[in-house]
Design brief:
Low-confidence stretches: 1-62
Largest sheet: 8 strands, mixed
Distance between the termini: 22 Å
Number of strands: 22
Helix content: 25-40%
Mean pLDDT: 81
Length: 382
């Protein structure tokens, strides 16, 4: 490749990387979140320019969604109740966790059990985070059972802006608490102007200007700028000298990008990309064999006029260390979805169970770091 062409290509790739990093830092475009197509939004114009300048390569700058950190149940510690085992199964479509507890005391124990959903924080017009469902409360599709019977849970939702609980104000105004929903945008737009100024002054909202059709008139819209905190909880009884099995499942928040910096030899030779790749190596424990497989997968995708894309799942493991003792028996199973996908995550003693499933098993396990999973796929659009 001529030096001038190579320089131009690397400049374009740096621009894409910078945009991708910006998207992940204050995640990307609002249209993917609200389901309303916008025209004239400044962020959309910037991304369109990046894509146009990168037409010859993997245009993934405007095709990235960020992932939310999810995790397991949080238990109030009790010296008589031991967690004998935890089995965690993670795939692109579902997370399953099974706990086995034994009450070693002579009396029944009733403890609070909670499942904190990840915070949803909308802080810019370019917000774009993967939220698994449109349910305003149970947006990860959480369900739980105790000894095979469904558990009736309670839920608490709170809204915060600038560290202040503003839940009551939104309820008074009739505004949905979930900032990611299109219904919330419409309810905010319908408020009188004095309420617009009140919410803006409290740091709960901001004005953005865009249209809502192929050739619309530009209009001002009021958008949320708050954090939603959601927690499911219930009181769980642990009978003496009995095994109590608690299971829960939900849909993970899967961050994804049509393209990836992993496996592309031209991107990895760029100094800026090298820094990002080093961070990936640390977060996902990518070893030499994985990188070699990614390079082959990238070349194969390019030959098919496609791209190598990525999916990301973050899971909070460290809450398991809140228990009174280490987890006696811990099993993690990761399913990469498609046999042709590549997966990397930090663990010791990983065993392959099937063409898509990998498993680790620990005894007396005290998690000190959280889990991050990277899955590379060849589903990226040309």
């Amino acid at each position: 490749m001529p030096i001038a062409a190579r320089t131009k290509e690397l400049a374009s790739r740096r621009l894409v990387l910078a945009t991708l990093q910006a998207i992940r830092g204050c995640p990307s475009q609002a249209p993917a979140r609200r389901g309303t197509e916008r025209w004239g939004n400044r962020a959309g114009v910037i991304v369109a320019a990046v894509v146009a300048s990168f037409a010859a390569g993997p245009a993934f700058a405007n095709d990235t969604t960020a992932e939310l950190d999810t995790g397991g149940l949080v238990f109030v510690q009790n010296p008589d109740v031991e967690m004998r085992s935890e089995a965690l199964s993670i795939s692109l479509t579902q997370i399953d966790v099974t706990y086995h507890f034994v009450n070693t005391g002579a009396q029944p124990v009733t403890n609070l059990v909670a499942f904190p959903l990840p915070d949803i924080t909308v802080d810019s017009p370019d917000w774009n985070v993967a939220v698994p469902t449109d349910d305003p409360v149970n947006f990860v599709g959480f369900t739980t059972t105790a000894n095979g019977q469904p558990v009736t849970t309670q839920v608490e939702q709170k809204v915060f802006a600038n560290g202040i609980d503003e839940t009551a104000l939104l309820q008074q105004l009739g505004i949905p608490l979930a900032p990611q929903l299109e219904a919330t945008d419409k309810a905010l737009d319908a408020l009188p102007q004095d309420k617009w100024q009140q919410l803006i002054g409290l740091g709960m909202a901001a004005i953005d200007e865009y249209g809502t059709g192929p050739d619309p008139k530009m209009q001002q819209h009021l958008e949320p700028r708050w954090t939603l905190k959601t927690t499911y909880y219930w009181q769980q009884s642990f009978p003496p000298a009995q095994d109590t099995v608690i299971e829960h499942r939900y849909k993970p928040s899967v961050g994804d990008s049509v393209g990836t910096i992993v496996g592309d030899p031209q991107l990895s030779s760029d100094p800026d990309v090298a820094k990002q790749l080093a961070a990936y190596k640390t977060k996902y424990c990518m070893d030499a064999s994985f990188l070699a497989a990614a390079a082959k997968a990238y070349q194969k995708a390019q030959q098919a006029n496609g791209n190598l894309g990525e999916d990301r799942i973050d899971y909070i493991l460290k809450t398991g260390a809140n228990w009174a003792a280490p987890i006696a028996d811990f099993t993690l199973t990761v399913d990469k979805g498609d046999p042709n996908n590549l997966v990397s995550f930090c663990a010791n003693g990983v065993k392959k169970l099937s063409p898509t499933q990998f498993q680790v098993h620990y005894t007396n396990f005290t998690p000190t770091v959280d889990l991050a999973i990277l899955i590379l796929n060849s589903g990226g659009a040309p």
